[in-house]
């Protein structure tokens, strides 16, 4: 919790969730309750959700709008940047209370509207943390013809009785699809058909390690026509197609329409789940939360975002095909690993990886390249100076 979630960069929210002055959303950084709030000057602050007087929660609602932040326990009031502005019955206090503001996280930055924060004022710049994975976020927002996404659909929360690290490990694991999700592929035509219905030699999709713990399942090579990733015929959404081609040109717009969105994890807690945005939240060593929302697009007609919502419900909703399967598998693994520690094998495909000129490592869809990438970075964060190559030993 300290080395990864307090000392590193953590995804907090998207700026579309707090568009107006006074808008706030509650979040957690590891197990620390915080909230992101936009002040009158437009600045977004991430503030520890704890009164400076007696430690009570300031914001109880998951989201809302506040002109001021008032603790309901003793009425201490703060402005939207956390500065103390009023103390009821001040005669009982002595000394200067101007320093008794709310604790603000010292580093808050954003990329393409995705807001990240850190408790560590000496953390490297956000762009250093994201590294080459900025391309993954770019690909997500470029699904919109105006380059903007909107997270306004509400968040659905699922509790997993497993360690939080099993979520990023599983979400970019291409080896399990054929065995965990066959009923989904048999019932619905989707971009996962290739992984389930094809043999090993016929798989065109790739597993990727982008560095810094960021990983991806790259499905685009398996698509044969535009909008196949959207589960519909090429001409189903003509206005969307026209808008993308007009915005990005025939070549790039055509590539976006064919390649579709990324399926990638941004270390440690953000999952770009194609047309969904997911947060991973640790609760306890054996409990975590998977929290998702549909990734709506700005600059498109309503039928496009309605289809995104329906897909989100079908893949990740309470009665969805995919998430319940993954939850069962993760919880089984947690139970199996609670006994005496044993070594795990993460060697699949290590001998057939290809390193591109930009350093991104690619391999077969079913190879454990993303798992190795995640655990190498985890090891480097937990044990700075440890060897950066060689076998990954997970006890």
Describe the structure.
The protein has 395 residues and is an alpha+beta fold. Helix content is 27%, strand content 24%. The protein contains 11 helices and 21 strands. The protein has helices spanning 2-6, 126-130, 134-141, 166-171, 177-180, 182-187, 193-197, 238-259, 302-316, 322-336, 369-382; strands at 10-14, 23-29, 32-38, 44-48, 63-65, 69-70, 77-78, 84-86, 107-111, 114-118, 149-150, 156-160, 206-211, 214-218, 263-266, 270-273, 276-284, 287-294, 296-297, 354-355, 361-364. A 9-stranded antiparallel beta sheet has the order 12-18-17-16-15-14-13-21-20. Strands 4-3-2-5 form a 4-stranded antiparallel beta sheet, with no helix packed on it.
Report the principal-axis shape: globular
Briefly note the structural class of the backbone: alpha+beta
Largest sheet, described in full?
A: 9 strands, antiparallel
Mean pLDDT: 92
- Helices, by number, come to 11
> In order across it, which strands form the biggest sheet?
12-18-17-16-15-14-13-21-20
**Global Rg:** 22 Å
- How much beta, percentage-wise? 15-25%
Please, what is the oligomeric state? single chain
Q: Terminal Cα separation, in Å?
A: 19 Å
Helix proportion range: 25-40%
Quick one: how many beta strands? Answer: 21
Uncertain residue ranges:
none
Keywords: 2Fe-2S, Dioxygenase, Iron, Iron-sulfur, Metal-binding, NAD, Oxidoreductase
Protein name: Rieske 2Fe-2S domain-containing protein
Family: Belongs to the bacterial ring-hydroxylating dioxygenase alpha subunit family.
InterPro entries: ARHD_Rieske_2Fe_2S (IPR015881), Rieske_2Fe-2S (IPR017941), Rieske_2Fe-2S_sf (IPR036922), Ring_hydroxy_dOase_asu_C_dom (IPR015879), Rng_hydr_dOase-A (IPR001663)
